[in-house]
UniProtKB/TrEMBL annotation:
Pfam families associated with the record: Acyl-CoA_dh_1, Acyl-CoA_dh_M, Acyl-CoA_dh_N
Protein name (record): Acyl-CoA dehydrogenase
Ranges of residues in domain Acyl-CoA dehydrogenase/oxidase N-terminal: 22-133
Family in the record: Belongs to the acyl-CoA dehydrogenase family.
Residue ranges constituting the Acyl-CoA oxidase/dehydrogenase middle domain according to the UniProt record: 141-234
SUPFAM superfamilies referenced in this protein's UniProt entry, alphabetically: Acyl-CoA dehydrogenase C-terminal domain-like, Acyl-CoA dehydrogenase NM domain-like
Keyword Oxidoreductase: yes
Keywords of the record: FAD, Flavoprotein, Oxidoreductase
Provenance organism: Williamsia limnetica
Length: 416
């Protein structure tokens, strides 16, 4: 694949030769300059439970990042990335979170599929798909979970059979984030009849805008519909659009999950810290900060956030050695339970008023998907409701504990 000339994208290559402080300053300066004007009201938009907010404007924001060379930082330069070090990528995510910049709409393509194609894809697949991901011209969804295979990913039943030069796909995926706005999905299918568990799976790249694909949004407790059901009824994709060898999709799928829990988690924790700071401010303002139980819960949340950060830094430090295999599961348990507990803490700080949803107003009309029939929840109510799912999606608490027990500690497998 032809290397991108970063200078043509307005990128000052000199900033990459300075200290980490110089790099952080360049990120901070760019965000301060551009997160203003037409993008000013996007600050802190699009977070958990609010993915519907200002979607079209956030898409334009992502494309502005791409034009300035701030997407795909960790990709090698020959694939259009910036070849950033881990330290630089961490700094970017931290500064991005601190600035209050909006949630990205291209995360699945940039942070998950892109690195997976670089690691496992063919040259043709890289040429065809990486530019669209880098420039945010194509959005991707993740077709893993199914009604009978949520956290138990190896139990999937969606099938794909090879018919000449075409894969024909039948089955259903569920909890598919942003499938209603994506053009493509990577879909884990069973391609070997009679196979079971991890064997006989293939990792396919599938266009969503075609006959045979039906996307149905699932309304959540928050009243929004980030998640979707996706039905495949003789849907098709090209035979060449299998990543890795047919039947070895499990290897590719697990490789992708390692990318999912990479350096962006440290940026996520900066966002968590901002949320905790706001809870503390709210507690001081309404007097609940003087209540012993609330003070203890705030102190615990602060300490646990430090533990979470220390674990993330330790995990990144041993990434090249492979680690014990349980770091990602520990990280998921730490942040998912912490964030759920923060939602509960915010409700406790607010007290009885947190139980009342304000009536819908026309203020949300600027949103691209505003429905005046729904009640408009405030930030903390939406966060509380959404974080109920944090301990379930991406591998439930039970599954993460089983991974640690069986694969790391060597304990007997759970009876099935």
């Amino acid at each position: 694949m032809t290397a991108i000339n970063l200078a043509d994208r307005g990128v000052d290559l000199a900033q990459w030769d300075g200290t980490t402080a110089d790099f952080a300053d360049s990120v901070r300066t760019w965000l301060d300059q551009h997160l203003s004007g037409e993008f000013e009201n996007l600050k802190s938009r699009g977070g958990p439970g609010s993915e519907h907010e200002f979607f079209a404007r956030r898409l334009e924001w992502d494309r502005l990042l791409a034009r300035a060379g701030w997407t795909c930082l960790g990709w090698p330069t020959e694939y259009g990335g910036r070849g950033a070090t881990i330290e630089q990528r961490i700094l970017f995510h931290q500064e991005y979170a601190r600035s209050g910049a909006p949630a990205r709409v291209s995360h699945v393509g940039e942070e998950l599929l892109g690195p997976t194609l670089i690691a496992f894809g063919t040259d043709e697949q890289k040429r065809r798909f990486l530019p669209g991901i880098r420039d945010v011209d194509e959005l991707w969804a993740q077709g893993y979970s199914e009604p009978g295979a949520g956290s138990d990913l190896a139990n999937i039943s969606t099938t794909a059979r090879l018919d000449g030069d075409t894969w024909v796909i039948n089955g259903q995926k569920v909890w598919t984030s942003l499938a209603h706005v994506a053009q493509w999905a990577f879909v884990l299918c069973r391609t070997e009849p009679g196979s079971s568990r991890h064997k006989g799976l293939s990792f396919l790249l599938v266009p969503l805008d075609q006959p045979g694909v039906t996307v149905r949004p699932i309304q959540q407790l928050t009243g929004t519909s980030e998640f979707n059901e996706v039905f495949f009824d003789d849907a098709t994709t090209e035979a060449s659009l299998v990543v890795g060898e047919p039947g070895e999709g499990w290897k590719v799928a697990m490789g992708l999950l390692q990318f999912e829990r990479g350096v962006s988690t440290l940026g996520q924790q900066v966002g968590f810290s901002r949320e905790l700071d706001h809870v503390v401010e709210m507690a001081k303002a309404n007097g609940t900060a003087s209540e012993p139980v609330i003070r203890e819960r705030i102190a615990r949340a602060s300490l646990e956030l430090r533990v979470m950060r220390a674990h993330a830094q330790r995990t990144l430090a041993i990434v090249d050695t492979g680690g014990s295999g349980g770091e990602a599961s520990v990280a998921k348990l730490l942040w998912a339970n912490w964030h759920r507990d923060l939602g509960e803490l915010a409700m406790a700080v607010q007290g009885a008023p947190s139980l009342i949803a304000p009536e819908a107003t026309s203020e949300g009309a600027a949103n691209d998907i505003f429905d005046p029939e729904h009640l408009e929840l405030d930030f903390w109510q939406r966060l509380f409701l959404f974080t109920r799912a944090d301990t379930i999606y991406g591998g439930s608490n039970e599954v993460q504990r089983n991974i640690i027990a069986e694969r790391v500690l060597g304990l007997p497998r759970e009876a099935r």
